[in-house]
Amino acid sequence: MSSDPTTAAATSRSGVASAAILSTVGIGVQGATKLLATVVIGRVFGTEVLGQSSALLSLGVFAALLWPTAAGNTASRSLAIALRAARSDTAVTRLLGASMLLSSLVLAAVTVPVALAWGNGPGSVVGGVAVVVGYGLYCYARGAQLGYDRPRRVATWDGLTSLLTLGLLVLACVTRAEPFVLLPLGIGYAVFAVACWPRGAATSGDDAVAGSEPTRGVLRFAAWNVLAGLTTNGLLQLSMISAQVTTTPHDAGVYAAAFSLATPASMVGQAVAQVVVPAFAHRGAASSLRAPRTLRFVIGFGAVTAVLFGLVALLADWYLPLFYPDEGAAAVADLRYLVLGVWVFTMSLVPAALLLAAGRSRQVALASVTGFVVGVALMAALAPAAGVAAGSTGFLVGSAVNLVAVVALGLRRTAVRPEPETASAPDGPALDVVVPHPHEAREGRATDRDDDHRE
């Protein structure tokens, strides 16, 4: 590690920036692929099939929030800490890997009756299961690789599997395999998971003296992260599911057109947040919004995304009909309303990621429950009169409550407990940072964190 703190900090910031860019590019490619898939499905197979497919895709993302996304966030943080301290992560990866396989079986079993209840045939059910399982494994493997500071590898496999998905989708369209249109996406996600599955970072020589990364508290941290994920990310998927189950197939298809173009925008925040967790996992007080540089980073992120999302909304009446000739004009208002909610949602992701990096997933979860409850209640109350707009309204208001909650937590002053410095790897990767003073080694009291292994 560099002996010059200024130089090391500058290198770290540059490493985080490059990792964020690569992560955004990779997840952007996946988002574009998903968008193209929905466009092709809508054009080739019609509005009703588009609505059903979009609902199953939303189910896949929502199901991932029930464990896989949390496991990925936990792996991202735990593996980054183990890598920096030169400790073996084998025990952690085995534990999280086993939990992932079990959750995949459970989620697959639950998907079948849900998909059938929505009126899908056997082929569509198979595609839905493939998306639910494949996307969950993808989320976990992606988080683990970012924990290892391998954003380039992640971006590469995002690109390769996107090409595979599009190739298989073309084949499905040419053969008119309508029931299996979601299978290409599921296969693409599964291939990524196999290629990027965490197999443990090698430790040898002096590194082995550091021992193994402890597993105590890992599943608890992930469990709180499940609640945090559901209450912050779940509302967006519920807005599409709400449209599917409370309106006509045609209205749901029109809403799906808007939804398919609004959701890729949310991936910008998700990509940056995925990098923030491992990058700030060992920064102590620097992960607080009270740190000037961190606050400037969040404000700058908000300004940039406000411009980007504003353009998405402003130009909607021009590009929507290009993607969806039949539904485009009718979906413009839905898209603009959704984009506002997506921007508020995106703004909440980075402050929440900073709290997760500090090990405070319990606080994120408990604080954001109110937003989730408010959002779902609004969806249910407004659905009879407002139709598809009920989902967008619930999503917007719930996301606003979540944003206020995580920002308030990030700005809160917390007591800091002195601790000895942990061992650090010499000349670590780009995510490595200057070892903080012992009094800044970990932010917050023991009760603030969910990963305290010394219970």
TrEMBL record:
Q: Where does it localize?
A: Cell membrane
Record field: transmembrane: 55-75, 95-118, 124-143, 155-174, 180-197, 218-240, 252-277, 297-316, 336-357, 364-383, 389-411
Q: Entry's InterPro entries? A: Poly_Biosynth_Transport
**Top-level division of the source organism's lineage:** Bacteria
Which Gene Ontology terms of cellular component type are present?
Answer: plasma membrane
List, as start-end ranges, the regions of compositional bias called Basic and acidic residues: 437-455
Keyword terms of this UniProt record: Cell membrane, Membrane, Transmembrane, Transmembrane helix
Query: Mostly located where?
Result: membrane
Report membrane topology.
Answer: Multi-pass membrane protein
Q: Where is this region: Disordered?
A: 418-455
Could you identify this protein by its name?
A: Polysaccharide biosynthesis protein C-terminal domain-containing protein
Naturally occurring in which organism (per UniProt): Curtobacterium luteum
